[in-house]
Structure formats: structure tokens, C-alpha cells
Amino acid sequence: MTVPFLKIEQLAQRFPSPDRGGEPLTVFENVSFGIEKGEFVCIIGHSGCGKSTIMNVLAGLAEPTEGVVVMDGQEVKGPSLERGVVFQNYSLLPWLSALRNVTFAVQARHPDWPKDKVKAHSYRFLELVGLTGGAERRKPSQLSGGMRQRVSIARAFAIEPKLLLLDEPFGALDALTRGSIQDELLRIWRGSGLTVFMITHDVDEALYLADRVLLMTNGPYARVAESVEVGIPRPRSRDQIVEHPNYYKARNHLVHFLARRSKELAGREHATASGQPETVRFADPGDDSPGGEGADPSQPALRAVNQ
Amino acid sequence: MQTFNGLSLGIRSVIVSIAILLVTLGVWELSISSGGASAELTEYELLTGGGAPKAGVPPPSEVFVKAWEQLSDPFYDAGPNDKGIGIQIGHSLYRVLAGYFLAAAIAIPLGFLIGMSPLMYRALDPFIQIMKPISPLAWMPLALFVIQDSQASAIFVIFICSIWPMLINTAFGVAGVRQDWVNVARTHELGTFKTAFTVILPAAAPTILTGMRISIGIAWLVIVAAEMLVGGTGIGYYVWNEWNNLDLTSVIFSIIMIGLVGMVLDAVFGLVQRQVQYSE
Ligand SMILES: Nc1ncnc2c1ncn2[C@@H]1O[C@H](COP(=O)(O)OP(=O)(O)OP(=O)(O)O)[C@@H](O)[C@H]1O
Ligand SMILES: [Mg+2]
């Protein structure tokens, strides 16, 4: 087995909690997984299970209590411009215009570039997310939520990182805007060789975007229990994807996991020694052998299909 | 009435302001000219051994004449006790700005360090809390004794009174910068100085400017009292001197000038504040 591009090994994060008589709060433990170069991976889990905490560790913003993260053969020991981050709340600097928010990042990446080159480069990425023609001169407070998210994505793309980390980037957007920015994200990602790690709450979003979906059990002592291979060929389109036989198998599996098994599997006693998630792969179309075990079609969807 | 209500709020408020001004001036003018010189001595005049012919409160018309006279030649200099209002205000402004910018030069960098370090924030808090409520004038004897110079002592008093709001607001603003923005700086591998200047400073600027605006207001309040104590020059000394001359017309005129200069100072800082303001 070759070493993956991003390797997470035996990660654990514990926070001191004074109100528990000194016993620390273990958010997650024994988290190990790998991500291949160019892969698009989503992670799903209930609120509070520690997804953002994992992402902060991957970004280098937080230090894990135990374990290591290795990217491209190098241990992650702090934030780096090799890892672009799109924060849950966009985190644009409100005193700068949309354009200046992007040039801020480009300047940091290329301190030796002249001003006009920085500007041209920034413009190119704002154009990519469809944010030019006057809007780039506005402050974030004068932009809609969707436009802010585009700026935030343009900022992350403009530094041309090797790994893109997205924390529920579309959570606050309406279904229509979400759909169009998802498509933009896929368009930019395709052929760029970029590796994407994205947190989401939305099962359909994960199935539309990801190659693989990681499933987290509930905290405390959360872990990544399963790795579901979506197995739907690209390019995907929203209306055809639902006709693919894997789609409902995968969807049922995810919904069922969130509704029931994330709770059943919670706790330390279910942990495996290696911490590696169990791989779930669905059978080829036409093949009737059971693949998505435990799928229960009667389970209600957690979220409506967003179209 | 109908047409009045049809006007914009801005115009209506100006009309009402002018009306209040005219009524006040009218009542003032009438009450003094009818009371006249033959009025009995007030208790205050008795207490101050008054009853001198010039001791009555002048009507606004006299103040206007005085203002015209003074403002048409604000920079005349006829000896230590007779200088134009412009020169006096100039002296006061010099002291205020010198003390103020000295304070800013120390308070803002220090406030930055305090705000960035939770340890220093807590450690210095008791000292700041004790120093803050001390009337700046209480420092005056100590300042005169140590510095041995009245001009520098006045500047020191301004320094000490304007430092606290700037220090506290800077520390508060810096400590309250959203962790998200600091994380943006970190993910872009900005160094400490770059982070301080490109992220923390603009983020905390509105709070810092609020502190600076409070400070300049306090400094201008304090300079009048300080100059009454140290004497020599300045608008505070001028008020006190004219009171000793029992020239109440000049006293009222200078009171109005103090108000106007204070208003201009505040407006300038208000303008700067608006430049650095941002909405999330
Ligand atoms: N700095 C911290 N100190 C103490 N506890 C923390 C800290 N940061 C996070 N936690 C705890 O860790 C747990 C996981 O938080 P995290 O933000 O990672 O959840 P999440 O999976 O991202 O949730 P959501 O989907 O709602 O964003 C929570 O119980 C939270 O209270
Ligand atoms: Mg989160």
C-alpha cells in the first residue's frame, strides 16, 4: 500500500474541562484515515462531534493532543499556505473590499510579485467565481451571503494550495445559490489536481461532490467509523445522478448512519485498534449482491434534495 | 404648520435650533436691560465683596460686540496680560496636542501589548483601575515639584488624563479581535508584525479611535482648569484673568470659544473615526 497524500494517524483531541472534576473532555480519539492526491472527500457527522476540531488540526491552527498529520511527506506543524481554508463563516476581513481580501492572500503567497501582477492574479480568481463587474470593489457587508462565500472561495483558490479545507461552506446559503456555487467548486477543482477535504451536514451535497464520504460517530470519543465510496462517475449532473443505482444505496446508507448507527457506534468500546475506518463500497450496477448493508429505505431523509 | 411638517427632518431641526437660540438670547437680553444697574446686589456679589459697576452679567449684545472686536484681531500681543484670543487658544491647543500625542504614542503600543497578552491584561488591570479615576489635577503639585516647569507640568497633566481611555480602549479592542480574523492571518503565514498591522490594527481601529476621541474631549476639559492653576498663557488662564478683571463679557466670550474649539476637536476625531469604521 502506498502512502497517501494526506495521512492522519491516531489523532485525538482532549480539552480540559474544569466542571468535570478535572477529567478532560475527549472530543475524538483514534482517528486515522488517508486522502489521495486529487481526491474530493467529504466528512459528515452530527453537530458537536468534532468535525471543525479535526479541520483545525489539518489546517495547523490547532495542535492535536495525540497523533500526527502528514501531508506530502511532511508533518503538519502549523498553518501553511499549502493548505487553503474556507471557514464556516467566510471570515473575510470586513474593512477590505472583496478584491483586497483576495489580494491580501495573494500578496502573502507571493511577496515578491509587483502590485499589478497581484491584482491581475486576484481578478482572475474573482472572475472564476463570477464576482467581477463592480462587486469586487464592495466591502463584505455590502455583499450577499453567496457573494461573500464566492470571495472566500476565490481567496482560498488564489493561493493555489495543495489541499483545500472547507468547513460547511454552503451551510448558510439558500438551495439555489448553494447549487450554483457547488458547480463552480467542481468546475475549478476538476483538472486542478487539488485535494479537497470538506465538512458538510448535507447528505445530498456530499454525494454530489465527493469521491468518498467519511462518517463520524457521535462524541465524545467520536471517531471516523466508515469511509463510503460514492462510486458515481464524473462529470455528474444533478438530474442524472439520482438515476444512478449507487445513489440511493449510498444515500440510504448515509441517512441510516446519521439517524441510528452514529449513536449505536458511539463510545470507546466500538473502536478498532488501528482506528482505520471500515470501507463501504457498493456493488456495480446490475449486480444484486448486497453492498450497502443496513440500508433502510423507510428512513426519512434528513434534508430535502436541494433542487 | 402643514408646510413645516412637509420639510425634511434636517431642515426642521435647524429651524427649531435657531428658534431656541433666538428665544434664549432674547430672554437673556430683556431680563438684563430691564433689571438694570439699579438692581440690588446679588448674594454672590456680596460674598465676593462686589458691587463694582462692571460686575453685572452682560447682555448678549455686549458679548457679540466683544466677540467681533476679539475675532477681528485674534493674534494681537500687548504684553503678558493682554493677548488676543487666537494666541491664547493657540497656547492651549499646543499643550493639549503635545500632551495628547505623547500619551497616544505610549498608550497605543502599550495597549496593543496588553491586549495581545492575557497575562499582562490581568496583571496591569488593577493599576489602571486605580490610576484611571484620579483627577488629573491631583497630579499637578507632584508634577510642578518634579518637573519644576509650569508649561511642562500642564502638558504632563494632559498626558496623564488622556492616556487612560486610549490605553484601555486599545487593549480592549485588540483583545476583542475576532479569532477568525487572527486565524486568517495565521493560515496566510503572516508574521507577528504583519498580523499586528494588517489585521489587528484595522480590526481594533474603531475601538481605538473611540478611546482617542474620549481622550481629546477630556484633555480639552482639563486644560482649562490646568491653565487656571499654572497661569501665564492659554484660554484657561485668559478666563481666570478676565474674571479677576471682572470683565464678564470676555469671560462669557471665552466660554463660548472653549465650547467651539472643543466641538471642532471632537468633529475632527469623529471624521477619522468614520474612516476606520467597518460593518461586519
Ligand atoms: N477550545 C475548546 N475548548 C473546549 N471544548 C471545545 C473547544 N473547541 C471545541 N470544543 C468541543 O469539542 C466538540 C466538537 O466541536 P466542533 O466545533 O469540532 O464540532 P463540529 O462537529 O464542528 O460541530 P458543528 O457541526 O456544529 O460545527 C464540542 O463538544 C465542543 O464543545
Ligand atoms: Mg463545525
TrEMBL record, chain A:
Localization terms from the record:
Cell membrane
- Please list the residue ranges annotated as the ABC transporter domain: 6-243
SUPFAM superfamilies recorded: P-loop containing nucleoside triphosphate hydrolases
Query: What is the predominant subcellular site recorded for this chain?
Result: membrane
KW DNA damage (keyword) present? no
Keyword field: ATP-binding, Cell membrane, Membrane, Nucleotide-binding, Transport
Question: Where are the stretches annotated Disordered?
Answer: 266-307
Quote the Gene3D superfamilies the UniProt record gives: P-loop containing nucleotide triphosphate hydrolases (3.40.50.300)
Read off the CDD domains from this record.
ABC_NrtD_SsuB_transporters (cd03293)
- From the Swiss-Prot or TrEMBL record, what is one GO molecular function term? ATP binding
Query: Matching InterPro entries, A to Z?
Result: AAA+_ATPase (IPR003593), ABC_transporter-like_ATP-bd (IPR003439), ABC_transporter-like_CS (IPR017871), ABC_transporter_ATP-bind (IPR050166), NO3_transporter_ATP-bd-like (IPR005890), P-loop_NTPase (IPR027417)
Q: Which domain of life is it from?
A: Bacteria
For whether the record's keyword set contains Signal, the answer is no
Q: How does it sit in the membrane?
A: Peripheral membrane protein
* PANTHER family attached to this UniProt entry: NITRATE ABC TRANSPORTER ATP-BINDING PROTEIN, TAURINE IMPORT ATP-BINDING PROTEIN-RELATED
Family indicated by similarity: Belongs to the ABC transporter superfamily.
In its UniProt entry, what is this protein called?
ABC transporter ATP-binding protein
| Species per Swiss-Prot/TrEMBL record | Paralimibaculum aggregatum
From TrEMBL, chain B:
Q: How does it sit in the membrane?
A: Multi-pass membrane protein
Q: What is its main location?
A: membrane
Keywords, A to Z, come to:
Cell inner membrane, Cell membrane, Ion transport, Membrane, Transmembrane, Transmembrane helix, Transport
Residue limits of the ABC transmembrane type-1 domain? Answer: 89-269
Pfam assignment, any one: BPD_transp_1
Give the stretches traversing the membrane: 6-28, 97-121, 154-175, 219-240, 252-272
Question: In the UniProt record, does the keyword Transferase occur?
Answer: no
| Keyword Transcription assigned | no
Location comes to: Cell inner membrane; Cell membrane
Q: Say which family it is in.
A: Belongs to the binding-protein-dependent transport system permease family.
Record protein name field: Nitrate ABC transporter permease
Q: Give the species.
A: Paralimibaculum aggregatum
